[in-house]
Design goal:
By secondary structure, this protein is mainly alpha-helical. The chain contains 11 helices and 2 strands.
């Protein structure tokens, strides 16, 4: 396969945008016995490259949402993604500081409820996604965004509250705006990534051990570290917010 065919049509989105659209497609797919559209069709529909489609399918396969049979296609099953309550009026304009403030209010609570309600399979999924986060290429921002977002969403879904899941998805969609990709990537370095890995591991351990207060505390610690990294990066590049 040539490099040109890997990215045809020209990529207009990220793996995360492909994943979000695939989740919606799964909800709307009329017949689970029939495969999803072929990769080339998904590329054209979502305006992304083949790599982004395949990465998004990797996440859905890891979550158990889809399964792939060589020569036959990609099928839905056994369970579709949890359907959050739809928020009709999502904010069209925001900034990273507002997003982090919202995450600090929402995600520690999600971690707390996940520690109370997560099933063994949901904990296993968190561990698998955490392994992906830790082993992916540190030089590939698209991969980092994809698996980190999937990890945090697994916690949100395990909390078992559709309203909070809807709020998480709304904030996460704003967080993943491509215009902020540069500052998020600039805010990462190896030391910070190692610290985030430690936070993630501790959060999962507390969830698995049914320790809601501890899970919420470490999630807050994690988000405060992210917030500080973003603020430091934005202060170093004040012109970024004018882009």
């Amino acid at each position: 396969m040539t490099a040109e065919s890997e990215n045809y049509p020209p990529a207009g989105g990220t793996s995360n945008s492909a994943l979000e659209q695939l989740r919606q497609l799964i909800q709307q797919h009329p017949d689970h016995t029939q495969p999803l559209p072929a990769e080339r069709d998904l590329m054209q529909r979502f305006n992304v490259g083949r790599r982004e489609v395949r990465r998004a399918l990797d996440v859905l396969e890891e979550e158990g949402r889809v399964w792939r049979k060589q020569g036959k296609g990609t099928f839905i099953g056994p369970n579709g993604p949890a359907q959050p309550l739809i928020l009709q009026a999502l904010p069209r304009q925001s900034n990273l500081q507002e997003v982090m403030e919202a995450r600090l209010q929402i995600e520690p609570g999600l971690a707390k409820y996940a520690a109370l309600r997560a099933t063994p399979e949901q904990v296993r999924l968190m561990r698998r996604l955490l392994d992906k986060v830790k082993t992916m290429s540190r030089g590939d921002p698209d991969q980092i965004e994809l698996w980190d977002s999937a990890f945090h969403r697994a916690i949100a879904e395990a909390a078992g509250n559709r309203l909070l899941l809807g709020l998480f998805d709304a904030v996460d969609a704003i967080r993943r705006d491509p215009s902020w990709l540069a500052v998020r990537n600039a805010a990462r370095n190896q030391e910070r990534l190692n610290r985030y890995d430690d936070h993630h591991e501790r959060i999962v351990e507390h969830i698995a051990a049914r320790q809601p207060k501890e899970a919420a505390k470490v999630m807050r610690e994690h988000l405060l570290a992210l917030q500080q990294a973003f603020l430091s990066t934005l202060n170093d590049d004040e012109d970024f917010t004018d882009d």
